[in-house]
Amino acid sequence: MSDFQTSSRCRMAAVVIILAGLLTACLGQDFLNAPLELDGFDHGWLVNVEPDEEFTVDLIAKPLYADVQWQLAEFDPRLIEFEGSDHITSNCWEPTDENPCPAGLDEEPFLAHSAFRFTGTMLGESPLSFELTVDGEVVDVCEYTIRVVEDACDGDIGIAANRCGLGDRDPDLFIPVFENESHQVFGVGENLDVTLSANAMHPEASWRIADIDPAVLSHLATAPDPTRPLGDWDTSDRDKPWHFLPLWRITFEAVGLGESPLRLEMLANGERVDVFEITVEVVDEAPDA
Question: What letters, b where the CB count within 10 A reaches 16 and e where it falls short, cover 114-146?
């Protein structure tokens, strides 16, 4: 299994299992008590929070516009209070004497991201939207509907914090945007699966191969995942897709020894609106073999 198929985030790998009152380490009390954390993968969802409940939205910069920060665009300040934001530009953010930066970590590829903090206040429903603006033009958006209710865990409409157990993401899904500009090693004959999200401004635009060495990597398939219909916030059916935006899965086979660039891009109306690139090295045997 490639690095792109393995999520390092507990939330993306979690399935709530309660057996005789015992929880696994990943699903322990810390997991259940964790505050609600939203990101770009949750675009389009109705989100339930309670008055005085804190939640965050963490949005990753686009590789094509790596220095451009997401901006808060719309919300109802009567219903949700904006507490502030942090723009994180390094793998080693705010190291301390007690928690120093591991050697070499800050030299690894990294995409900046911004964490926005909110608190529910008054009962009601508010839009919550963010924009990525380049030279005065909005190039991407991320949108949610926030509903402040007395009990965020009541019913099967919308998503909420982990404590509510109202459904979670596909445990096998990992969006590898953080791997942009990284160096990946595979053995001959191994498959590489890259899963990338559509752009909310251009949901029908697909990803295409911009640069590859066919002597090293062979393109096997490009296909979109099924999507959830817009506005379908019912979480009672756990077999439905989580995402409203299309996800494109591009599959390659390592066919020859050597190194190949792998650059993927998304075009809309003839203009490039997103990019993802890594370097793939193919060796005789996989590193973990």
Answer: bebebbbbeeeebebbbbbbeeeeebbbbbbbb
Q: Which of 44, 270, 81 is nearest to 158 (CA)?
A: 44
pLDDT tens for residues 251-272? 999 999 999 999 999 999 899 9
Q: In terms of pTM, does the model score above 0.90?
A: no
From start to end of 12-105, where are the E strands? 36-39, 46-49, 54-60, 71-75, 80-88
Give 77's contacts (C-beta < 8 A, 6+ positions apart). none
Looking at residue 202, its amino acid is: H
Sign for the CA dihedral angle at 117, 54, 33, 141 comes to negative
| pLDDT at site 15 | 27
- DSSP 8-class letter at 32: H
Which amino acid does the sequence have at 211?
D
The pLDDT, as a whole number, for residue 146 is: 98
Residue type, 216: V
Q: Give 185's contacts (C-beta < 8 A, 6+ positions apart).
A: 280, 281, 282, 283, 286, 287
Q: What is the CA radius of gyration of the chain?
A: 20
Query: CB count, 10 Å around CB of 79?
Result: 21
